[in-house]
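WARN no homologs supplied; continuing
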Amino acid sequence: MEYHKSVLLNESVEALNLKSDGVYVDMTYGGGGHSKLILSSLGPKGRLYAFDQDESAFQNKLEDERLILIHQNFEHAFDYLTAIGVEEVDGVLADLGVSSFQLNDDASGFSYRPNIDLDMRMDKSMTTSAKDILNSYSEEALQTIFQRYGEVRNAKTLAQRIVEVRQGKKFHYSDDLNDVLRGIQFGIFETYAAPIYQALRMEVNQELQVLERMLTTIVELIKVGGRLSVITFHSLEDRTVKNFMKYGEFNDEPTTDIFGKRKSWNWKLLNKKPIGPSEEEIKKNSRSRSAKLRVMERVG
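OK structure emitted
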């Protein structure tokens, strides 16, 4: 089975404006699609550092001496790169989508398919799984994550029901959660369940917090004229990336001092509106439909 079909492959790599002797970072190696295309444009002196916290991604490691593949969450990329002496890079690419392999792999626990262990840890060394959250979070905490990360309409009812059910039976498998969802769902089950599973996955892996830490640190390594190319797949990620690229922070409006002056931000957006997949790409890969590409360049 193909590990992952890279989305906006050509657009995201072309946005880096690759130099043959440049140094680049692929924050999310996955199936190696973006890395392979980047390497095809690099000469013998070029280098590519790629990160992935999922051990299964290493099954796809490209045999190329210019590629250094690192088993780390990308939030640690800055620390790792500086520790090994990388002082600056020419560009960084991050594809924030969960891989097709992970979505289809029952061991990952991302799916609402029957009889799947409620795990959802991208890095199996992490201590908290989805079932831990369902079995231990307070009703208020559960409601918050379903509202924030899943925009679930009846998040309060859902949280209440989970707390009620776990008094007599702990959550272990997707069936346990699905039984609850079917009792309170709106419309089609799959449409209702998807954002709930997404919310749990995002909480387990602290995805927004990790994304914010990665963005604020990695830009320190990008040289003047270098670029950051990021592909997002849902509104919360996209808002985080959009605000950061516009303001250097994550609020919807920039912070100003007492004189109304914004902080200095030496970056420019290269696309005011995000780049989306073509109709042809959507036909070939329906999961690409929600993808958005944003790019910025360091100017000072």
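The longest helix spans residues 189-205.
OK
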